[in-house]
């Protein structure tokens, strides 16, 4: 994967300059921050919102908490596996659990998801086994799951391109007369891509049943959001003729309520919605990145106080919705998941080296055939030299 090249260049260029604080820079460029839709404060207080409310049982609240805890556990296990040399790369979702679990749990089974490469929490909600996400990052397959089994498309590395796929798919859903919806995940950096602009235009004009879910985690590798936009991202929707809403991306209840409402709107045939989940990438862009080179520690510390998991925990405890036994059992479940993931990754067989040439063209292609033959000869040269040495 070549996703790191930009990081390496920017890091070098910035290393002598001052570190940036994304939120401060955004304020400077855009004036006061607009209000977020919020249903749970960072302190775990439940608050009301006139347009978005949600009534969840204690069981459902515990379910959301469990989803976030297990997703974070899986994510940290994957980071550790990369450090141990078991994965080539990992893109952590640390800090974005509420945005992903809230939106993921708003979906119906027949809805279709087009993710980026960081949507491990959404994958969890769709029932994609976490171990299936790791094959690509270990380099043993090109994806690892059948998108149509869980209506969860393969991870997409080409920034922003999945918004076009989602729009086309949603236009097809509308033509079929189905009442399901489509959701496209993308980042603040992706919002600068032409693909995203085109998908906004097409989805608006064709009234496609699609929700654009932008996780504004404040950074696109080492570029702060101020380099992507001069207006809050959710306001972009207005120019295309559909609604945009900014939600507290660290508030799982608000993310669930806002996404559910946008999906229902799509199902009613009222077209797309842009949801900007205002959140923070707590970790590095990927395991190949070092954010201490370009951003200030204080920024991360300020966001730590808004941790999505801690705020729901505080609410569950205060409201008496979960007891000590629940948290202990979840801890045990987390450890079991971590162990299962670790063992599954280590047991993944290496692929046949020639398999990389498969599934490129349905009917074959002269250039691929030539490359396959060259690679086969190259592989065979090792066998020959081994035989020579053995003589
Ligand atoms: C078309 C394209 N251009 C550049 C890249 C390199 N690249 C990989 S991730 C990334 C930043 C994406 O930032 P953002 O959309 O905010 O998503 P995040 O990684 O923060 O989740 C870039 C530029 C790429 N993968 N694809
Ligand atoms: Mg980003």
What's a quick, concise take on this entry?
With 391 residues, the protein is an alpha/beta fold. It is built from 15 helices and 7 strands.
Largest sheet: 5 strands, parallel
Strand content: 5-15%
Computed structural class: alpha/beta
Q: What is the total tally of β strands?
A: 7
- What is the share of helical residues? 40-55%
User: Order of strands in the sheet with the most strands?
Assistant: 1-2-3-7-6
Uncertain segments = 1-17, 23-31
- Provide a count of the helices: 15
- Small molecules bound in the structure, each named once: thiamine diphosphate, magnesium ion
> Whole-Å distance between the termini?
39 Å
Mean pLDDT: 91
Counted up, domains total 2
The gross shape turns out to be: globular
The SSE string, one letter per element, is HHHHEHHHHEHEEEHEHEHHHH
Which CATH top level class of the largest domain fits?
Answer: Alpha Beta
| CA-atom Rg in angstroms | 22 Å
Question: Per CATH, which architecture of the largest domain?
Answer: 3-Layer(aba) Sandwich
Fourth-tier CATH superfamily name of the largest domain: Thiamin diphosphate (ThDP)-binding fold, Pyr/PP domains
What CATH calls the topology of the largest domain is Rossmann fold
Cofactor: thiamine diphosphate
Organism: Streptomyces lateritius
Pfam families: E1_dh
Keywords: Oxidoreductase, Pyruvate, Thiamine pyrophosphate
């Amino acid at each position: 994967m070549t996703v790191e090249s930009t990081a390496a260049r920017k890091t070098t260029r910035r290393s002598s300059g001052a570190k940036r604080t994304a939120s401060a820079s955004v304020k400077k460029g855009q004036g006061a921050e607009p209000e977020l839709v919020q249903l749970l404060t960072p302190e775990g207080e439940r608050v009301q919102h006139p347009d978005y409310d949600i009534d969840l049982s204690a069981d459902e609240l515990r379910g959301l908490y469990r989803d976030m805890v297990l997703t974070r556990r899986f994510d940290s296990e994957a980071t550790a596996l990369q450090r141990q040399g078991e994965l080539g790369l990992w893109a952590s979702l640390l800090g974005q659990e509420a945005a992903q679990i809230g939106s993921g749990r708003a979906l119906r089974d027949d809805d279709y998801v087009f993710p980026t490469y960081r949507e491990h929490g959404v994958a969890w909600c769709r029932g994609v086994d976490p171990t299936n996400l790791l094959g690509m990052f270990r380099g043993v397959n090109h994806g690892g799951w059948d998108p149509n089994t869980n209506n969860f498309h393969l991870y997409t590395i080409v920034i922003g391109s999945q918004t076009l796929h989602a729009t086309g798919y949603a236009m097809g859903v509308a033509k079929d007369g189905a009442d399901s919806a489509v959701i496209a995940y993308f980042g603040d950096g992706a919002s600068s891509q032409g693909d995203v602009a085109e998908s906004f235009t097409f989805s608006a004009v064709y009234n496609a049943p699609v929700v654009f879910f932008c996780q504004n985690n404040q950074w696109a590798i080492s570029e702060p959001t101020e380099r992507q936009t001069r207006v809050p991202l959710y306001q972009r929707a207005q120019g295309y003729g559909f609604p945009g809403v900014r939600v507290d991306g660290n508030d799982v209840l608000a993310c669930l309520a806002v996404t559910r409402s946008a999906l229902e709107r799509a199902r009613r045939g009222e077209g797309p919605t842009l949801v900007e989940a205002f959140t923070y990438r707590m970790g590095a862009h990927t395991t190949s990145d070092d954010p201490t080179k370009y951003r200030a520690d204080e920024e991360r510390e300020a966001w730590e106080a808004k941790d999505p998991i801690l705020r729901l925990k505080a609410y569950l405890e205060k409201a008496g919705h979960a007891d000590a036994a629940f948290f202990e059992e979840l801890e045990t479940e987390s450890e079991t998941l971590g162990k299962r993931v670790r063992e599954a990754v280590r047991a993944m067989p290496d692929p046949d080296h020639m398999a990389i040439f498969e599934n490129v063209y349905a009917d074959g292609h002269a250039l691929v055939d030539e490359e396959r033959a060259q690679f086969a000869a190259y592989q065979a040269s090792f066998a020959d030299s081994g035989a020579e040495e053995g003589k």
